[in-house]
Amino acid sequence: MTLPPPPFATDSGGGDTALVLLHGFGAVHGVWDHVVGSAGGTIRTIAYDLPGHGASLALPGTRPSASAGLIASDLRTRGVRHAHIVGHSMGGAIATLIGLSAPGMVASLTLLAPGGFGGEINGPLLRRYAEAVSRDDIKASLAAMSAPCIAVPQPSVDLLHRMRALPGQTESLVEIAAAITRGGRQGEIPREAMAGLRMPVRLLWGDADPVLPFEQSSGLPDRFDVVRAEGAGHMLVEERPDMVAALLSSAV
User: Fold this and answer.
1) Is residue 148 a part of any domain in this protein?
2) Residue 232 falls inside a structural domain
3) Which of 94, 110, 136, 162 is surrounded by the most beta carbons within 10 Å?
4) Does the pTM of the predicted model rise above 0.85?
């Protein structure tokens, strides 16, 4: 039987403890570059292209649980014993699933507006984003996912425009968007399962998030640290880079 290729990741630094970065739906590993640089530190940093995205396009990305298994397996292959995992949106759901399936590996979870914490999701907006190919359409989609009056960074638009030029990328995103918004709802990670997470868990969530409502951060275990990003939307890496950089620094 032919094994699937591992998901693509940039891997800088050394050691068996790593800061692991999982981007959100429709993005690539490069979205973290500016916040990792400003966070500083010397810890080993591994930033993935999620299955179905960028250099991991050959891997199917419609099942977050499968993506979690692939990434956990790859981390073991890379010799990572302790992972501080940071995930945005769909990447946050995948990070949580890794924490549930491989708790001995996960030293902490930092979740930015994570998927899977409630059924409500803005399916039409995600499907619009999946179909965006031109710079103008990408910028308009990012603006719609951000809080009003937020200026969309042009480097982010250019990065995603290059990604969507990959043959088959748009088709993959459309398929993933359809899968994660099927029936107008997203799959939910049971709260009773989340209660079993024993590592430190921190969340950053914008209270003006138009994709995944801030209210999904309610009713979590008391020991979860929930930080409210006032006036922020869903694109926290772009909208609140200083807050994200501070979380990355404190995670390790």
Assistant:
1) no
2) yes
3) 94
4) yes
Question: Does a structural domain hold residue 156?
Answer: no
pLDDT per residue, tens digit, the chain (252 aa), is 566 789 999 999 889 999 999 999 999 999 999 898 755 567 899 999 999 999 999 999 999 999 999 999 999 999 999 999 999 999 999 999 999 999 999 999 999 999 999 999 999 999 999 999 999 999 999 999 999 988 999 999 999 999 999 999 999 999 999 999 999 999 999 999 999 999 999 999 999 999 999 999 999 999 999 999 999 999 999 999 999 999 999 988
DSSP calls for the chain: -PPPPPPPEEEES-SSEEEEEE--TT--GGGGHHHHHHH---SEEEEEPPTTSGGGTTS--S-HHHHHHHHHHHHHHTT-SEEEEEEETHHHHHHHHHHHH-TTTEEEEEEES-TTSSSB--HHHHHHHHH--SHHHHHHHHHHHSPTTPPPPHHHHHHHHHHHTSTTHHHHHHHHHHHHTGGGB-----HHHHTT--S-EEEEEETT-SSS-GGGGTT--TTSEEEEETT--S-HHHH-HHHHHHHHHHH-
**Cα separation of 217 and 131, whole Å?**
29
CATH classification at residue 101: 3.40.50.1820
Residue showing tokens 């099927």: 182
User: What's the structural domain count of the chain?
Assistant: 1
Total residue length of the chain: 252
Q: Do the strands 201-206 and 106-112 form a parallel or antiparallel pair, or are they unpaired?
A: parallel
Q: Is residue 105 part of a domain?
A: yes
Longest dimension (CA), the chain: 52
Q: Which residue type sits at 125?
A: L
